[in-house]
Amino acid sequence: MGFRPGIRNLTIQQQEAIVNECAEGWTLLELGKQFNISESGISKFLKRWPDKGGVPEVPKSGRPRSTSHLFDRNVLRLSRVNTRLTAVDIARELCDLQNPKPSVRTYRRRLQATGMNGRCPDKKPMISTKNSKALVEWAKAHKDWTKKEWKDVLWSDESKYMLIGTDMIQWIRHPQGTRFDPKYQIPIMKHGDGNVMVWGCF
């Protein structure tokens, strides 16, 4: 995986060196190889230089970003390729591409900035490829049914109701060292007696 720092990460001296070497006849390809910048990046930078009416890329006020825009794109790409990777996993994958190494919190901020927030996935029944195709074929075969025909169909469903505890994730806050205090625990039934199944049809 290639990594290029970008014009914004170069010092003023390096930017001036690019301009001087370009005036001496260096090609964009040669400049790109020397400073590890793409040819298009070199070209855009030269168009903005003061001699051509532009403004040099000067350091911004405040604390500089610890990662480049290209590095941020690599973080986002890994998250999209494997949505189950945590920020710790991504940091382990990209640890050799950035120096100094960003913190795990930085990885989380980069992902959150693009809308890739950590969420609990929805749980759906697992359907095999064979059954999935059969469901689609059944739906196509009955898509033109009338209301009268659908009235002859018996609809049914079932649901589980928890009498004790919950199936959902619950978050609590408790002082350090009080993990086993009953006040901060959720009671459960070990043998399945804490819920009731209800079935209905119409």
UniProtKB/TrEMBL annotation:
<dbReference type="GO" id="GO:0003677">
    <property type="term" value="F:DNA binding"/>
</dbReference>
<dbReference type="GO" id="GO:0006313">
    <property type="term" value="P:DNA transposition"/>
</dbReference>
<dbReference type="GO" id="GO:0005634">
    <property type="term" value="C:nucleus"/>
</dbReference>
<dbReference type="InterPro" id="IPR002492">
    <property type="entry name" value="Transposase_Tc1-like"/>
</dbReference>
<dbReference type="InterPro" id="IPR036397">
    <property type="entry name" value="RNaseH_sf"/>
</dbReference>
<dbReference type="InterPro" id="IPR009057">
    <property type="entry name" value="Homeodomain-like_sf"/>
</dbReference>
<protein>
    <submittedName>
        <fullName>Transposable element Tcb1 transposase</fullName>
    </submittedName>
</protein>
<dbReference type="GO" id="GO:0015074">
    <property type="term" value="P:DNA integration"/>
</dbReference>
<dbReference type="Pfam" id="PF01498">
    <property type="entry name" value="HTH_Tnp_Tc3_2"/>
</dbReference>
<dbReference type="InterPro" id="IPR052338">
    <property type="entry name" value="Transposase_5"/>
</dbReference>
<feature type="domain" description="Transposase Tc1-like">
    <location>
        <begin position="72"/>
        <end position="144"/>
    </location>
</feature>
